[in-house]
Structures are given as structure tokens and as C-alpha cells.
């Protein structure tokens, strides 16, 4: 069904495909298709690495916030910041992962026409959608995690 929709939108001509066989890498392929697939693979690898770096930076940031509060005060404020920063980091990681995954699923259908027509535009579209989804998930997850950490702290207080 999707193939028929793509075929209807693109209206590929068999003469065009055969004429441009040397640009695609094999006869019968869409011109430039192999190059677009390689570009998407490279972008995915960089984005995945960037995600791991972001998680590491978030963890270090939470640890530094805890250390800053706990160095000056080892009482109630230190215990509270451990809960709030721990919740913030955990939920921002989970939220960013889930929202980035949902954006990844949606980006295929949204960016396919742009990718076929322009190539690089499709890669940029996918990167923008996944990046935005992950940022929104991280931001909202962090806010929710901080709130939940504070509530858990209040529940365990005598």
C-alpha cells in the first residue's frame, strides 16, 4: 500500500530509471537512492552517539548539583536534592528515550517524500523531528522527575 502511494506521488518512469542507472549504483533503482540511504545511516550513527553523550552530561550535571548542595549542608537540603536530582535525571533520560523513539517512528512517514525528492532534506527532516522529540521528552521528563522526587522525599519524612 505504501509502495503504491510512493509510486503515485513520484510517478517514476522506467525510462528515467534506466537512463540514470549509473547515479544510483544499479539499474532499476531510484537515482541517488544508495547515497541517500548511506547519508541516513551516517546521521543515525552520529545521533545515537550524541544521545549517549547527552545522557553522560546529564548524569554529571546531576552529580555536580548534588555535590554543590551537600558540600555546604549535609542535612535536609542535601537529602532533598538527592531525591529531586535523581528523579530529574532518571525521568529525563526515560522521557527523552521514549519521545525520541516515537518521533523516529513518525519521521519515516513524514519525511519520506522530502527525502526522495531532495535527499539531504529528508535527513535534515528526520534529524529535526527526532531531536525535537527527544528534547521535549527530556524537558518534560525532567520536570516530572524532579516533582516526583520531591514528593517521594516528603513522603519519607517523619
From TrEMBL:
Output this protein's name.
Answer: Uncharacterized protein
